[in-house]
Amino acid sequence: MDKLAIIGGRPLYGEVAISGAKNSALKVMAAALLTDKKLTLTNVPQLADVEMLARLLAQHGALIDFADGTLTLHAKDIASTEAPYDLVRKMRASFNVLGPLLAREGKAKVSLPGGCAIGARPVDLHLKALTAMGAQIELDEGYVIAEAPDGLKGADITWPFVSVGASEHTMLAAVLAKGVTVIENAAREPEIADLAACLNAMGAKIEGAGRSSIRIEGVDRLHAAEHRVLPDRIETGAYAMAVGATGGELTLTGTDSELLGAALAALKEAGLDIDDTEKGLRIKKTEARCKAVDIVTQPFPGFPTDLQAQFMALMATAEGAATIKETIFENRFMHAPELSRMGAQISVDGQNATVRGVARLKGAPVMATDLRASMSLVIAGLAAEGQTMVNRVYHLDRGFERLEEKLQNCGALIERVKD
Ligand code: UD1
User: Fold this and answer.
1) Tally of domains within the chain
2) Can 116 be counted among the known catalytic residues?
3) Is the CB of residue 160 below 6 angstroms from any atom belonging to ligand 1?
4) Residue of the nearest CA to atom 14 in ligand 1?
5) Do 264 and 353 lie in a common domain?
6) Residues 6+ apart with CB under 8 A from 361
């Protein structure tokens, strides 16, 4: 398994081109199953997760071509309506093929995604929405077996709490349903509006995506379209936090401060100068150390759970004590003990972590069990004295495009060590 060797203590200077958002790319890719015409996606990041979903879509019959960030998907015929365990269990976003297959073919058999390292992550809301749209659903030996022989129909859906995955999945199914579907208490993440923009370019009729009430008027068929995936807000935030931990000045091109939601205010409060310039988002650290800032993870526009680990690495080097509260996932502090191995002072109590910043972290061999946690260790390694060896780089390859190259270009001493 590859590792990343980092010699820390060097500030970052230069430009980083922010990639297309993984979390959006994976959802718009599933939309290709809704039509027998070609879907062309641009600004698609070259990531292990994208390649894995492409393999699943190919298995369903899509012809796929991926070069230089342009991904074309053409599901002229659906070869199989079954998504096997091996392809779904590795990546939760694969589960989203259920809605499109059901909407187009009237049936689907898709493996349940199962739990994952950061918590239980159930899919009950996804299944409730499909059931409300008329699907008959059975669970059998770890598979969801769904049928809608007469097609799906529009429904009024109100959720008790916000779910990004269920909001996206419902849109993916409702675009071909008969009649109108209304989702109340929908998630407002930028990726939801991006998926709606892609579906609308394909001929869907979706209004309100990006707000908490979304209205989808079903259409008979969708057509060919081209869509550019929006910039990755988590990658944007992660590089901004790296500057906070190491010092220096980066311009993040192809992205936008509005995508950061509450993370923008937290980073400014911590002491970073952040400006939208003609070239991109300029991040500059002017003080020797950032200040401690308390955060609570919330659905967008709140502080994103996907940036919590990276923010903890930043707070580990800040002046003062910060409280970090994780409200989205119940087991998302696994980076805390690893950061502690580098000298961070962190105590975890249920949903809350208290981080007392230290003047200098110390390099150490570390490993993480999920993608964002791995990035927090990279940030800590960049700030630490001496060498940090980050194990299990495959997590990072799932979600951060050309990570070491982007950091090397800004002066970081980081190298991949092949096993
Ligand atoms: C979540 C994040 C998303 C992030 C992604 C990957 C939020 C609101 N969502 O999206 O920003 O990019 O993880 O890390 O921050 N839930 C149920 N039943 C369901 C679906 C969800 O109980 O059917 C619960 C989840 O366990 C969780 C909460 O609802 O506690 C929000 O989950 P959801 O937004 O669906 O998760 P993801 O789509 O994975």
Assistant:
1) 2
2) yes
3) no
4) 306
5) yes
6) 8, 316, 317, 339, 342, 343, 344, 380, 383, 384, 385
